[in-house]
């Protein structure tokens, strides 16, 4: 099994963090359900072209945060995450994506009204469809 | 798991100069070097074939001891001494004399690689010969694999099968490890955790693969900056409308740029197929 995640070479955050966040998103959005077996750190490393040092660190952090659990000799599995935690994380994911979009607009010297107008246009396009 | 200390060999064309190497269990370690850098000499020595000065141990056993030989399987680059035999005869030898032999594994590999049992190895194509050696060596149940350019001559299907076999070897136990010689960046990208560079017979300290990708970056800046080619980490600068910088120490270069108030348009990690040639060319310590 491979996971629908990828490493972005242009992002400055460390690779283990990118992996961690993407798996977390898959779990809180319920694309990965509780009890689902995750690929081994070795299989994930070879899928992404990174080292097992990196994938192990991502898994360790996710385990500490209670999203996954490693059972020795059996593998790594998705944990049950409570609803409150899920909605907090969903909010954070959406919030961060919107914030990044605004930062890019700022870099390109968009004014506040211009950004607002653009957002409203996109919202209309997406929700009317 | 594999410990090489002060390995020195001064014979023939390629020399090795006090090589130290540690391959830990649970890791894949790639030895990268250009043709003629001494990779094969190093692997021959590590497999106990041509002992030089220094010590080589695997899990504490000297590599040429009986216990040592049980710790590893070796895929050499040339196999002249086996070429006069067919797979049928080599199979029989292993089956009767090799205590680590796994018959079920061998039968699976013969089927996967579609290997002719009666043909002499010298009459096989390079790829078929390589598949035969892989089938023989990977059917031995050992914790360490030493692979000298293991993908040589393999077709795409063969490459995929070998990828899977190496993955299985590493997943089978935390005690397993692989050390492989290669000059192909893509193999390193797919397989390795640690990298050491062999250059003129000396081996660099190992570096973690992802650390290499964190440090080696391409940075684009808008303006020309005085002295940029001497800035810390900078390996090359080229300019079109924007300036493109290759650095081997992104953090230092970016700090230098920000001290001078230079705007970075974009930066991106180099893939290994871009950074490794730089490293090999300049002999820069990784």
Explain what this protein looks like in three dimensions.
- Chain A: Pfam families: GntR (PF00392).
- Chain A: This is GntR family transcriptional regulator.
- The complex is a heterodimer of chains A (129) and B (286).
- Chain A has 129 residues and is mainly α.
- Chain A is built from 5 helices and 3 strands.
- In chain A, strands 1-3-2 form a 3-stranded antiparallel β-sheet.
- In chain A, a hairpin with a 3-residue loop joins strand 2 and strand 3.
- In chain A, helix 1 crosses helix 3.
- Chain B has 2 domains: 208 residues, Rossmann fold, CATH 3.40.50; 53 residues.
- In chain B, helix 6 links the parallel strand 7 and strand 8.
- In chain B, strands 3, 6, 7, 8, 9, 10 and 11 form a 7-stranded mixed β-sheet that branches.
- Chain B has 286 residues and is of the alpha/beta class.
- The interface between A and B is medium-sized, with 16 and 23 residues.
Q: Mean pLDDT score of chain A, rounded?
A: 90
The top-level CATH class of the largest domain in chain B is Alpha Beta
Oligomer: heterodimer
Query: First CA to last CA of chain B: what distance?
Result: 23 Å
Along the chain, the helix and strand elements of chain A come as: HEHHEEHH
Q: How many DSSP helices of chain B?
A: 10
Largest sheet of chain B: 7 strands, mixed
Strand order of the largest sheet of chain A: 1-3-2
What fraction of residues of chain B sit in β-strands? Answer: 25-35%
Overall mean pLDDT score of chain B?
A: 90
Provide the CATH superfamily of the largest domain in chain A.
Answer: Winged helix-like DNA-binding domain superfamily/Winged helix DNA-binding domain
Summarize the structure.
Chain A has 129 residues and is mostly helical.
Keywords, separated by commas or semicolons:
heterodimer, A: 129 residues, mainly alpha, 2 domains, 5 helices, elongated, B: 286 residues, Rossmann fold, 7-stranded mixed sheet, 4-stranded antiparallel sheet, 34% helix
């Amino acid at each position: 099994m491979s996971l629908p995640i990828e490493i972005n070479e242009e992002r400055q955050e460390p690779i283990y963090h990118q992996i961690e966040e993407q798996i977390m998103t898959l779990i809180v959005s319920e694309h990965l359900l509780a009890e689902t077996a995750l690929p081994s750190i070795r299989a994930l490393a070879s899928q992404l072209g990174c080292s097992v040092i990196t994938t192990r660190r991502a898994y360790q952090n996710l385990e500490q945060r209670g999203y996954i659990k490693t059972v020795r000799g059996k593998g790594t599995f998705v944990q049950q995450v409570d609803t409150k935690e899920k909605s907090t994380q969903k909010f954070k994911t959406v919030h961060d994506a919107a914030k990044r979009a605004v930062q890019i607009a700022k870099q390109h010297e968009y004014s506040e009204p211009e950004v607002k107008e653009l957002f409203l246009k996109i919202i209309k396009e997406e929700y009317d469809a | 798991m594999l410990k090489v200390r002060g390995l020195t060999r001064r014979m023939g064309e390629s020399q090795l100069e006090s090589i130290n190497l540690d391959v830990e269990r649970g890791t894949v370690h790639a030895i990268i070097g250009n043709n003629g850098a001494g990779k094969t000499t190093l692997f021959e020595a590590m497999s106990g074939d041509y002992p030089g000065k220094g010590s080589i141990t695997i899990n504490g056993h000297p590599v040429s001891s009986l216990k040592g030989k049980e710790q590893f399987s070796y895929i050499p680059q040339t196999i002249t001494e086996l070429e006069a035999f067919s797979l049928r005869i080599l199979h029989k030898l292993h089956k009767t004399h090799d205590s680590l032999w796994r018959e079920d594994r061998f039968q699976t590999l013969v089927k996967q690689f579609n290997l002719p049992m009666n043909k002499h190895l010298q009459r096989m194509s390079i790829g078929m010969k390589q598949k035969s050696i892989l089938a023989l060596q990977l059917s031995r149940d050992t914790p360490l694999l030493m692979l000298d350019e293991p993908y040589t001559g393999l077709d795409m299907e063969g490459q995929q099968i070998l990828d899977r076999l190496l993955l299985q070897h590493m997943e089978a136990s935390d005690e397993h490890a692989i050390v492989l010689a290669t000059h192909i960046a893509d193999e390193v990208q797919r397989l390795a955790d640690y990298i050491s560079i062999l250059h003129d017979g000396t081996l660099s300290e190992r570096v973690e693969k992802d650390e290499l990708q964190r440090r080696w970056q391409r940075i684009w800046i808008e303006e020309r900056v005085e002295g940029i080619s001497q800035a810390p980490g900078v390996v090359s600068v080229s300019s079109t409308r924007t300036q493109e910088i290759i650095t081997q120490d992104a953090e230092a270069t970016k700090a230098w740029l920000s001290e001078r108030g230079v705007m970075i348009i974009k930066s991106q990690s180099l893939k290994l197929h871009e950074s490794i040639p730089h490293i090999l060319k300049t002999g820069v310590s990784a």
